[in-house]
Write a structure and sequence with these properties.
Blueprint (H helix, E strand, L loop, with lengths): L2 H11 L3 E3 L8 H9 L4 E8 H6 L2 H7 L8 E6 L3 H12 L6 E5 L4 H4 L11 H14 L4 E6 L10 H10 L4 E5 L14 H7 L6 E4 L5 H11 L3 E4 L1 H5 L3 H11 L8 H19 L3 H13 L6 H9 L4 H16 L1
Parallel strand pairs: 1-2, 1-8, 2-3, 3-4, 4-5, 5-6, 6-7, 7-8
Helix pairs in contact: 5-7, 8-9, 10-12, 13-14, 13-16, 14-15
């Protein structure tokens, strides 16, 4: 067994809590913050294979991994099997922990073109595509998908899981909604359990993991090898340390203090500005600030002031003033 595959197996033996791939969210800065707060494994933003093969700067930036940005998987998406396989070879050169194929994005501009969850319209073609990608790289290849295109009385995910394992896929992440559901309705974790029971590869459960208790319940109900957190991490990245404490020690830890919340706002703003410059670095952090400041007295007014400020210095002054008011 190669060193890479042994490391891959060791990661899932720990039953990790994983940061999901999210466009314009799971960038290097946010991965670093989440890792510091307990994320054991991260996945990049999804990378368009056509952009990657054309040498697009954005795509190249997404697959660039710093030495301390590990373990991290690179996720790619596309509708053409040959291009996906070729892009996998390019992404492999960045030395990620493994490569992941996006077969779960339901957004119409992606799925409507046959990429992402669009592959679920033709499971046979999806399996053959995965087989081709696996054959072209030496790193483990995983697939992130949904339980079906929908609506269906019997979702294809159980049979599909078997076929993907036979194609050489090393692990499977299942977002427990159909593609047509998008983010609506409730994720049904039973489908992850059913898929896990018919394969020997790791299965990761995803969808509606909004708290440490959700992570605990999802793992207990499915027996899966890991749990993946998406949208909740955007506003509350502390979920990683909370989930790990509950899963590993059976301990419920306290919510972050107001001081921790303000400190994370400042840290994220500084890191994003160093990475992207002003004002872009400030603006892209705004999506996180409402969640970071949740529960603080005067949070709504502070958030409005931060949203109106494009300078790092100005934002830090607003946050410092909020901290001084708390200490007074």
């Amino acid at each position: 067994m190669s060193v890479e595959r042994q490391y891959f197996q060791e990661i899932f033996a720990r039953r990790p809590v994983i940061l999901a791939p999210m466009e314009d969210v799971s960038d290097p800065v946010f991965r670093k913050l989440c890792r510091e707060l307990g994320a054991e494994l991260c996945v990049t933003e999804f990378v368009n294979v056509e952009g990657l093969l054309r040498g697009c700067r954005t795509a190249r930036r997404k697959i660039t991994l710093a030495e301390d940005d590990r373990p991290t998987a690179i996720q790619i998406y596309g509708s053409n099997p040959d291009r996906l396989a070729e892009a996998a070879e390019v992404a492999e050169e960045a030395r990620p922990t493994f490569l992941d194929i996006n077969c779960g994005c339901w957004v119409p501009k992606i799925a409507g073109r046959g990429a992402g969850a669009g592959w679920l319209r033709d499971p046979k073609a999806m399996v053959e595509m995965a087989r081709m990608v696996v054959s072209r790289v030496s790193l483990p290849v995983t697939v992130k998908t949904r339980i079906g295109w929908g609506p269906e009385s019997e979702m294809p995910i159980v049979d599909l899981a078997r076929r993907l394992e036979d194609a050489g896929v090393a692990a499977l992440t299942i977002h427990c909604r159909t593609a047509q559901m998008g983010h609506s309705g409730a994720a049904d974790w039973q489908w992850a359990q059913k898929a896990r029971q018919v394969v020997s590869i790791p299965v990761i459960v995803n969808g509606d993991i909004k708290s440490a208790d959700h992570a605990r319940r999802a793992m207990a109900e499915t027996g899966c090898a890991g749990v993946m957190v998406g949208r909740r991490a955007i506003e509350h990245p502390w979920i990683f340390r909370e989930a790990r404490a509950l899963l590993e020690q059976g301990v419920e830890i306290a919510d972050p203090t107001p001081e921790e919340r303000i400190a994370l706002c400042k840290k994220h703003l500084v890191m994003n500005t160093e990475e992207r410059g002003e004002p872009h670095g400030v603006r892209v952090t705004r999506r996180h600030l409402a969640g970071y400041l949740h529960g603080l007295p005067g949070a709504a007014a502070l958030r409005r002031a931060l949203n109106a400020c494009d300078s790092l210095e100005g934002c830090l002054e607003l946050l410092d003033e909020a901290g001084r008011r708390r200490a007074a």
